[in-house]
């Protein structure tokens, strides 16, 4: 058993109707079943949203804040830094992630904390010791690479942004929710969550 910390984030605005919330909860249930000693820290980014980014709303650790910063933003960064596992419920709205989730990401991309620039300009990710699992819910299907490249800015964005800080995220996707396949998509995603590798 471990004393690891699991940070669980939801960002859907749909409450109990949300597919991503159901799948993220199933992922957390699977991981806590495998390791009952996991400490779970939960934040609902839709119910408790961070404001849009301004210098004053950044964490104190962010250079833009001038060393002052916002307490809630610093808490969000500290919670991410303390976590060993991060589970994120991420629906795709209008081909991208919710603005609430984007505001949270603005708080965790902090030079010197989660990434660093080298003398030659190369970026080093500093958060590579974390596991990130994303419960992704999308209305359509994005299996076609050309269409996904042009229209999908949720999984593609999250892969890039977490890769930037040294993390290769895992995804469990429920696709086709708005295309008459909600139940099948949810069932498949919940099955994948139940079969998720615990460590």
From TrEMBL:
Its cofactor is FMN. FMN binds at residues 12, 18-20, 92-95. Keywords: Flavoprotein, FMN, NAD, Oxidoreductase. The gene is azoR. Residues 6-195 form the Flavodoxin-like fold domain. Belongs to the azoreductase type 1 family. This is FMN dependent NADH:quinone oxidoreductase. It is an enzyme of class 1 (oxidoreductase). Pfam families: Flavodoxin_2. Binds 1 FMN per subunit. The keyword Oxidoreductase applies. It comes from the Bacteria. HAMAP family: Azoreductase_type1 (MF_01216). SUPFAM superfamilies: Flavoproteins. Also exhibits azoreductase activity. Catalyzes the reductive cleavage of the azo bond in aromatic azo compounds to the corresponding amines. Quinone reductase that provides resistance to thiol-specific stress caused by electrophilic quinones. Homodimer.
């Amino acid at each position: 058993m471990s004393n690891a910390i699991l940070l669980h984030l939801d960002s859907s605005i749909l409450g109990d109707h949300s597919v991503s919330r159901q799948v993220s909860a199933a992922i957390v249930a699977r991981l806590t079943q495998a390791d009952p000693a996991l400490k779970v820290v939960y934040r609902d980014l839709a119910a408790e949203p961070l404001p849009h980014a301004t210098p004053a709303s950044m964490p104190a650790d962010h250079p833009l804040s001038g060393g002052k910063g916002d307490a809630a933003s610093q808490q969000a960064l500290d919670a991410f830094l303390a976590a060993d596992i991060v589970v994120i419920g991420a629906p795709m709205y209008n081909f991208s992630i919710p603005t609430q989730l984007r505001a949270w990401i603005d708080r965790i991309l902090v030079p010197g904390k989660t990434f660093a620039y080298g003398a030659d300009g190369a970026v080093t990710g500093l958060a590579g010791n974390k596991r990130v699992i994303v419960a992704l819910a999308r209305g359509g299907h994005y299996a076609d690479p050309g269409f996904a490249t042009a229209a999908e800015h949720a999984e593609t964005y999250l892969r890039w942004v977490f890769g930037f800080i040294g993390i290769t995220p895992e995804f469990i996707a429920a696709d086709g929710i708005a295309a008459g396949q909600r139940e099948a998509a949810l069932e498949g995603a919940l099955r994948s969550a139940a079969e998720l590798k615990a460590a």
